[in-house]
Amino acid sequence: MAKKKKYVYFFGGKKAEGKAEMKELLGGKGANLAEMVNIGLPVPAGFTITTEVCTYYFDNKKKYPKELKADVLSALKKVEEKMGAKFGDAKNPLLVSVRSGARASMPGMMDTILNLGLNDKTVQGLIDKTNNPRFAYDSYRRFVQMYGDVVLDLKPADKHSEDPFEVILERKKNQHGFKLDTELSAEHLKELVDEFKAEIKEKTGKTFPENPMDQLWGAIGAVFGSWMNDRAIVYRKLNNIPADWGTAVNVQSMVFGNMGEDSGTGVAFTRDPATGENIFYGEYLFNAQGEDVVAGIRTPHPISELQKDDPIIYKELSNIRAILEKHYKEMMDIEFTIQQGKLWMLQCRVGKRTGFAAIKMAVDMVKQKLITKEDAISRIEPNQLNQLLRPIFDMDEKRKAVDESRLLAKGLNAGPGAASGKIALNASDAEEMAAKGDKVILVRIETSPEDIKGMNASEGILTARGGMTSHAALVARQMGKVCVAGCGSLKIDYKNKTIAVENSNTVLNEGDYISLDGTTGEVIEGKLETKPSEVIQVLISKTMEPEDSAIYDTYASLMKWADNVRRLNVRTNADQPDQSANAIAFGAEGIGLCRTEHMFFGGDRITSVRKMIVSDSLEERKAALEELLPLQRSDFEGIFEVMNGRPVTIRTLDPPLHEFLPHDDKEIAELAEELHISERKLKEKIESLHEFNPMLGFRGCRLGVAYPEITEMQARAIIEAAINVAEKGIKVKPEIMIPLVSTINEFKLQEDIVRSVAKEVMKEKGKKINYLVGTMIELPRAAVTADEIAQRAEFFSFGTNDLTQTTFGLSRDDAGKFLPVYVEREILPADPFEAIDQNGVGQLVDIGTKKGRSTRPDLKVGICGEHGGEPSSVEFCHRTGLNYVSCSPFRIPIARLAAARAVVREMSSKKPVRKSKPKSKKKKTSRRK
Amino acid sequence: MAKKKKYVYFFGGKKAEGKAEMKELLGGKGANLAEMVNIGLPVPAGFTITTEVCTYYFDNKKKYPKELKADVLSALKKVEEKMGAKFGDAKNPLLVSVRSGARASMPGMMDTILNLGLNDKTVQGLIDKTNNPRFAYDSYRRFVQMYGDVVLDLKPADKHSEDPFEVILERKKNQHGFKLDTELSAEHLKELVDEFKAEIKEKTGKTFPENPMDQLWGAIGAVFGSWMNDRAIVYRKLNNIPADWGTAVNVQSMVFGNMGEDSGTGVAFTRDPATGENIFYGEYLFNAQGEDVVAGIRTPHPISELQKDDPIIYKELSNIRAILEKHYKEMMDIEFTIQQGKLWMLQCRVGKRTGFAAIKMAVDMVKQKLITKEDAISRIEPNQLNQLLRPIFDMDEKRKAVDESRLLAKGLNAGPGAASGKIALNASDAEEMAAKGDKVILVRIETSPEDIKGMNASEGILTARGGMTSHAALVARQMGKVCVAGCGSLKIDYKNKTIAVENSNTVLNEGDYISLDGTTGEVIEGKLETKPSEVIQVLISKTMEPEDSAIYDTYASLMKWADNVRRLNVRTNADQPDQSANAIAFGAEGIGLCRTEHMFFGGDRITSVRKMIVSDSLEERKAALEELLPLQRSDFEGIFEVMNGRPVTIRTLDPPLHEFLPHDDKEIAELAEELHISERKLKEKIESLHEFNPMLGFRGCRLGVAYPEITEMQARAIIEAAINVAEKGIKVKPEIMIPLVSTINEFKLQEDIVRSVAKEVMKEKGKKINYLVGTMIELPRAAVTADEIAQRAEFFSFGTNDLTQTTFGLSRDDAGKFLPVYVEREILPADPFEAIDQNGVGQLVDIGTKKGRSTRPDLKVGICGEHGGEPSSVEFCHRTGLNYVSCSPFRIPIARLAAARAVVREMSSKKPVRKSKPKSKKKKTSRRK
């Protein structure tokens, strides 16, 4: 037979049977109560019934293990000894609380019972001890009410009915013409106890148990039972908490902070949870119970005032604060009660915090040598860095706006940050308004490459359609613009230049002020002030010196540690010199994706592009390309100079040609005139370029295969630019990337063009430079034939946006109709355009990488989809053995930190202490069950 | 040192050093000449210089192996002995031909020299032997001309210049006022010999060699050299013939069919190459050379007349015919010459034939016990069966139409067969015209599901856009309609109801006659008569009894043998009872894909479908579905009855909903009225369903996930129908298939609906039936996570149309812009929508099958894309271990034969004779280099 199981763990005095590491068995609350006892903090004695009892209880038709009764009695005895009181004693009664406590925090989901042990006899003991009959009877009536509800199941008949106890309470007040509960006397409360008991009997047929032991077992059963209540089940489902974890039950002596002016209660954090500052932060109230602090009826005092009000207790608490931080090496959230001058600790747990605070505290703790740099790295969620980077609204101002019902709608938080400006409904208006000095928010049903200049001129972009990787979202993030996308409840009327809000009378006009919180997706009517973060002021706008900003110092320290740890390189997606410069400021080690087509929209070059597209002959097309050559070349020169020796991956033309042509009659007429062709001919051309599924159409290298002269021009522009810049003594590392390859033959054709142009240019210029020719792997076919493609391609870059679209058969522009529902209903664990779908798309990345390296062992492999800046995807890339990720400039710090976290996680999973197996290849791509 | 290589193979008399199996070394011609000698046929003696010499020649700067000279001399000596003549002898000269002969036939690509050995002395010997100076000098001047061109390289200056020898010849005729070459006398021809020689000397500086040995080596070098001429290189590229195969050179004694009335020449086939009939088929001319038969200057006589003209030679030839067929077990194509009463065989090779003849001959030869059934199966290309199935044009009538320049255009041969009818430019006109009794050809820019009824009413479908698996092509093949798709040179003007032809003045109007040859893709102006094939008359139209048709008998024999051999099952894609009945007549073993949405267009049900789509509430939607339920149920009942116990796989609703809604203003107005809703609301609904990439949008199981009530209705219709039919004592095997699954969770949701509805219906009806629930694997993600999906799915059916689109990132509707170029330029070996892309898409099919079976070893796996009827794809499915293929009814015989051929090929690749390794798993999916 197995060793007898221990079901009950005592804590109290100087020694507990449990400890912090036993969270799985004792729950978070129980484990931390035990731990506090062990490190010498004053904790009211009690005991924890383990989560195994919970599991046993549900596996055995709500029966307990035989041994439990004796174990509980024995633990209760120890509690009586430590607290000097007796359970059920009429003179000196021990009162207890019975609380749930699961492995993971499930706030408010399960039941709690306080003041247990009170009955008609023991209430007298409490009166005697406190000299406060009103307090005693109020405690008693609350206990009966709580017990009646939780244990004896007297609840409102349905969700529209009132609480039966509240009905009686109201009646009592009405009888006496009282408005407040506090007007009730001890006698009234005593009457209520009896009336409550009678109501329970009448409605449920059950008798309120006078015997404290019966009360205790009833409460234990009810708390275990609450593990399976509807709320708890739903909460677990939402938070992926398995039902078989179970909850523990904590039975702990009651202490009271409302026993007079030498009593009190408070909550505190060992550091400021909002700013992260290393100050003792919290609130307290004298002569009050915990509820009073939380409920906000009386205004509590800041903890600093306690130093004046009660210097001894304050010193004791400060001491405890220091002990806790030293012991837990974390910012802790504590609850305490002072009962007649004695301090008791009721709870401690790791405190919640803002991203900002998380970063500051982690960095400070490293500097205090409390934790290692690796600990700091693993404590900060990469996305929390956003709070250091993005412009922000003043919180008070925003709250005011919401209070004034100016919150119009909520969309996808596609580009974090805060922006406020005047509404423009098309790109050219946005440009004009910005030129006049207005701050502009560009509002579109959706955006297209034609809108780029207008987007660049705007503070923020708001769209009614499109997801997290829609054109608007993608470009906004790359530009560092605020963006709220896919805000479907806005009805945008281009003709009347209005925005109507669904289910509301609000109609905004062009030129009205609107504000976007891209971090939350909120759209707010009117103007709100914003300001850039200090980190941005130092790195980008250079309006602040590094040494003047403590926040920047924190950021820089963390980034330095992350860079020392990570192995994955981080590049950026950028196609302008200024973007590239920003990216370097954020730590980019190269450009992973320079989209040449974005350059096609700058200045007047769009006209040359359009000329090329409508050309009927090779000669015409070449003439138009000839006009583009010097423009592209100078773009590349600018980028090469800024990147100063870092690798620059340039993708040849990718989007379908119709994206470059206008689609409304007026613009078509204008263009026809500009190009000296008939409107009819232009319309025919546009019509002939129409595609049913442009995603799967004539784009990517298919363009270069059909029109080799385009690839020729682009290769020439790149190599000429590289030589020109190299001649200034600046190193250049161009990497030319062929998009949308599905077979080695396409790649060969394009590679041959690039190499022959490069040879020609180098001969003309009499100077050699090194360059690579590689490809995007963004189609499933490319992934499964990567061994062939690697025969020629010198590098791979996974285009996981398109790879996700094709692997799922899912257009990101159309997915808005059903993808949110899929994520909500957990058909998919997350939006696969946000976090890489490791199980499906990830398998293809893994296959492509392995097959590619089977042909070319030193193949450089990166990723340049939007996933390159998403933490879980970055970690996946690290595990899969990629060389780099590439993301928009503003996500670089996030990627750097995520890459470092991947290493730290890997290290900790390899530590012998943990029993988890080293990650096998299979595991890497294995499914989420 | 290695054994001395044999470079020269003698043939002649009764024994040759080579044989038929030595094609790689001796080329096809040389090997067959040797073989004919070995089986005792009279062949003018000669020798073959091996292909290895060719390779050596090009590897060694056009030098020969040292030994070659002696070997050639020694072989030549044997030829002299056998032929009783001497090379270069003035009295009794041996003349030879020098011809190329590669492993694969490359007709006309390389050079040939005849009459070699003639010079000013030996010409006299020829005169003496023939008593015909004019013949001798004509032979001589032809030799000099040929030699000057081929060996001494005197060619026209450029492609616009005249042949220098022809210039001299013309001058000579003009001098004498002659019009025809035949008017020139022996003396004139003798003069020409000298003038030709002088021209060669003047233009090339080279002297015509009088020495026959010099002539011989010059000719050998020229023939080897011609292996690398431009024409040959291009031909090899087009036909995938490797350059390192090389050509052999055949040096053979000349014989002459023009030595008088006891001489002659002819070509023949051992059976009729057009009909396959077992008769001796060919032509001959007395006193003529081979060129004369081919050139058509004199009309040759049918070989049957030879029996009268020269019974001895005829008997000898008939005997040779029998020997050849018995020996080669094939229909052979022969060339012969009679020189002064003696028959000589000059060539034999396997004869080319029509598909029709190929089938008849193979079946006849099995019946004659010449070959095995497996041989017959492997000899017939499955697509050749089309010639037995499709209606056809009368060839003479068609040729006449082409001669009259009525061939308008050529498109994709998307639906084989012949059709002629009046042009209709939309589906409803087509229906109206057909109702009036007209034969109709529906001509559309492209078709959509709305056109189904019009397509069904038409004889054939012609589209300007779309590929081999466009909607038009797919539906046409399933209906057995003739279809020419993607005929881009037609400009279809719906408004004016005209069809203009690019680069032509032809404009056709609605109602004009047009004819389609769907087997070739030709579009012909005017009316051409068609007739159904005998096989169709027996199987489908039942206008002929099986025993009355020899052609049907041939077909049925072949199919029976194929069925006995094959292991892969063959099902059909059908969604109507009559289609299903046809499919069974063609041998279908079940339905692999019943597209329920096709049923949505029949009769008035489209109104109910539209009602459902525009519904605002669940209640409205359910009410509309309620109307559809009995209609779908009766459809399924009809199919289950016809299929009579065979499995029927029914796919739940797949296409995006906007496909069911009208798109032009008039139809929208009509529909709005019909549905009693405002036009504005209907337009909004249509607008809201618009998708950028419908292929990747809201379709497949995504519909059923969003609107479970649709799946509920369909499941109910299927199960109710199954029970109703089962109650009549007919077996039913429904297999319900969920489309476009990308994750197990989607499948689970849909499966749960189907199972709970099925349970409910069976309870209601008090009867149980067996059914399966499975899924399509048509997305890369489904393939790579097939192990998960197979936890629940009871069968897989690969939807290789969509899988090809997503794996390649290629919309079949848009691919027309570049895919033809890809195939033409060999970027892709074939249109991946026609023949499955084994290397890319095939890998995913393989991965999906293996992963699926890793979870569920007995998983039934099929394929229901259009590839299911394409021979190379069927073979791939066999190798990959699929259980069945499913294709349109008219392709079933093709799939049956292809499946049998896969087995035969597998068997022969396992025979120990061949040294090829057994196909490893890797090989199955390995690349094509």
Which protein chains make the most extensive interface, counting residues with beta carbons within 8 Å of the other chain's beta carbons? A-B, 51 and 51 residues
- Oligomeric state of this protein: homodimer
Number of helices in the DSSP assignment of chain A: 38
Spatial strand sequence of the major β-sheet of chain A: 13-23-22-15-16-17-18-14
Give me the count of strands of chain A.
32
Mean pLDDT of chain A: 90
The class by helix and strand makeup of chain A works out as alpha/beta
Whole-number radius of gyration of chain A? 34 Å
Note the beta-strand portion of chain A: 15-25%
Sketch the major β-sheet of chain A.
Answer: 8 strands, mixed
How does this model look, in words?
- The structure is a homodimer of 929-residue chains.
- With 929 residues, chain A is of the alpha/beta class.
- Chain A contains 38 helices and 32 strands.
- An eight-stranded mixed sheet of chain A has the order 13-23-22-15-16-17-18-14. In chain A, strands 25-26-27-28-29-30-31-32 form an eight-stranded parallel barrel, surrounded by six helices. In chain A, strands 2-1-3-6-4-5 form a six-stranded antiparallel sheet, with helices on both faces.
- In chain A, helix 25 (618-643) runs parallel beside helix 29 (708-726) and helix 26 (665-675) crosses helix 27.
- Chain A is elongated.
- The two termini of chain A are 34 Å apart.
- The model of chain A is unreliable at 913-929 (pLDDT under 50).
- At the A-B interface, helix 28, helix 30, helix 31, helix 33 and helix 35 of A face helix 28, helix 30, helix 31, helix 33 and helix 35 of B.
